Amino acid sequence: MHEIDTIKKELEEIKAKKKQTPHKLPFDDLPEEEKFNRLEPTRKLVLDTIRMTAYRAETAMAATVRNSLASPETARSMVKALLFTHADIIPDTERGGLCVRLHPLGEERLNIAAQELIRTLNETETVFPGTNLTLKYSLTGDE
Q1: What is the pLDDT of residues 52-85, one digit of tens each?
Q2: Closest CA to 59 of 72, 46, 45
Q3: More exposed terminus of the chain, fewer Cβ within 10 Å: N or C?
Q4: How far apart are CA 126 and CA 137, in angstroms?
Q5: In 83-101, which positions are buried (b, 16+ CB within 10 angstroms) versus exposed (e)?
Q6: Where does residue 75 fall: left (phi above 0), alpha (psi -120 to 50 degrees), or beta otherwise?
Q7: How far apart are CA 20 and CA 15, in angstroms?
Q8: Rounded Cα gap, residues 48 and 7, in angstroms
Q9: For residue 142, how many C-alpha atoms fall within 13 Å in the half-sphere facing its CB?
Q10: For position 51, what pLDDT does the model report?
């Protein structure tokens, strides 16, 4: 019985300490060795610009496949899935190409829409930065 009372007392002390501990600690109250460097406003602007550019590119790709899918939300989710899928990148210096082989998505209707996007991307004949290699996209199994 004495052990149970001791444990209950310890538990009450821990609960009381926990109530005294603030959930949020102001940045200025942190010890110097725990403080981190804040991003300068210009860095935040650069990151925001990159995020906005990526969002607009994603939106443009979704608009390309919107007609072949049921809804704009499905088009955007298909593009996101395609952007996060695994890919094989194979340089072909003899032909001046950089082959990007994307792995197929889970549904055939999404793969058909992905093919439409791939055709559009290949028509741009984009040269990979810093090289003379033209990007050529495909789904694996379509060669």
Answers
A1: 999 999 999 998 888 888 788 889 888 998 888 8
A2: 72
A3: N
A4: 11
A5: eeeebeeeeeeeeebbbbb
A6: alpha
A7: 9
A8: 52
A9: 20
A10: 94
44/49 Cα distance (integer angstroms): 8
CA 75 vs CA 37, 61, 106: distances in Å? 39, 8, 14
Give the burial string for 38-58 (b: 16+ CB within 10 Å, else e): eeeeeeeeeeeeeeeeeeeee
Provide the whole-model pTM. 0.62
Q: Are the beta carbons of 117 and 85 closer than 8 angstroms?
A: no
At position 45, the amino acid (one-letter code) is: L
Does the structure show a pLDDT above 70 at 142? no
- Residue 76 burial (CB count, 10 A): 18
For residue 49, is pLDDT > 90? yes
Residue 114: φ, ψ to 5°: -65, -40
Domain residue limits, the chain: 2-139
Mean per-residue pLDDT over the chain, rounded? 86
Q: Determine the Cα–Cα distance for residues 120 and 116; give it in Å rounded to an integer.
A: 6
